[in-house]
Design goal:
8 helices, globular, mainly alpha
Length: 151
């Protein structure tokens, strides 16, 4: 597959600067890096974004995640490899990513489960990671970026 065009965030440098600032804030939040990687990977799987799945797996491995757990992300509900906190974050990622399916997808139950495990800064980082992941999933699928593409 060939990309239709360069990623729009790369075409407009000020957009990239803004995105980098959000990533910097996420990194300074105190949220667990592995949890953020899992959230990114799960949202990317749901959206069928091969570049983000590819990059997400590579990034998660660099950050100490295991192959075994990464292979289980798509079926996390049926796996005993994830903590309760990770499960809450994955469920929040799924609900927030599937808004088109159900505008009230982030129920109080899902929210409260996440809030039981994460403070406000960590929740902010998780929500921002979900949002950025969905942004990049939409950019990449629209321009048909191939997996492994470097911008």
């Amino acid at each position: 597959m060939h990309a239709r065009m360069t990623n729009p965030a790369m075409v407009l440098p000020d957009a990239t600067k803004g995105i980098q600032n959000i990533y910097k804030a996420i990194g300074q939040s105190g949220a667990d890096g592995k949890t953020l990687e899992l959230v990114h990977l799960r949202a990317s799987q749901i959206n069928g974004c091969s570049p983000c799945v590819f990059g997400g797996v590579k990034s998660a491995l660099k950050n100490g995640e295991t192959d075994e757990r990464l292979h289980q992300v798509a079926a996390w509900r049926d796996s005993d490899l994830f903590t309760d906190a990770e499960r809450a974050a994955l469920e929040l990622a799924e609900a927030a990513t599937r808004l088109a399916d159900n505008p009230t997808a982030v129920t109080d139950e899902i929210w409260n489960a996440a809030a039981d495990h994460f403070d406000e800064k960590e929740l902010s980082a998780i929500i921002l990671m979900i949002g950025l992941t969905n942004l990049f999933n939409r950019l990449n699928t629209t321009v048909r970026a191939p997996a492994g593409a470097t911008w």
